[in-house]
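HUMAN: Now follow token order:
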Amino acid sequence: MYDMGTRKRVLALVGQGRSLNSVSKETGISRAAIRSWRTHPKPVGRGRDKSCPRCRDTPGSPEHPSAYSYLLGLYLGDGCVSLNQRGIYSLRIACADGWPGLIDACADAIQAVRPDNKVCRVQSVGCQYVTCWSKHWACLFPQHGPGKKHERKIALEPWQQEIVDAHPWEFVRGLIHSDGCRVTNWTTRLIGGERKRYEYPRYFFTNVSEDIVRLYTDTLDQLGVQWKRANSRNISVARKADVALMDTHIGPKY
């Protein structure tokens, strides 16, 4: 019923000296199941799930790495992975109603990563939750854990970093589509003795997790995009050449 990724995470918690009761309450998995896994870590009489690249005998990467890189950015910003009592995870990405193109792009990315699972859209106040159920979302997003992302360590696994390195613009696009924006700022300049209004575009990215901010800025560094920290939570890209480069690969939300 439970995939190997779930078993490994539960056994890792037990290995930290946690009681079966506390691990059961945190994960929603019975103490009897956890006790059994300690004796038999691998499912008896069942092979690993070939539909999940992380559950194969030799773990691999998703078959659509560019879609995964984009979805990873969306997940780190506005996504959440939850486990139900049947051992199935739901991936939910919150997308504002004002950006229907973003909602479609999110749904397409989820479907590309898990083509055998149904993607649905659940309407809420001012937004839609693009949702998909699978036993393997925790395998594909090991950053999943209890509590808010900014209250726990967020780091990419080596296989995830390889995907981001190969598809950095998709990762940045996902982060901008979740927690970023393209805006037009203005200022005034004295030209020929006359003060004139001057407008210029810039990109902002805002996240309270310093780990996620660092993933964003490290990827911008890899791409050669100059950035500045506007404040403790905001990263700004305002240099004309860098904004033009961002426009080529990302552009405004739609």
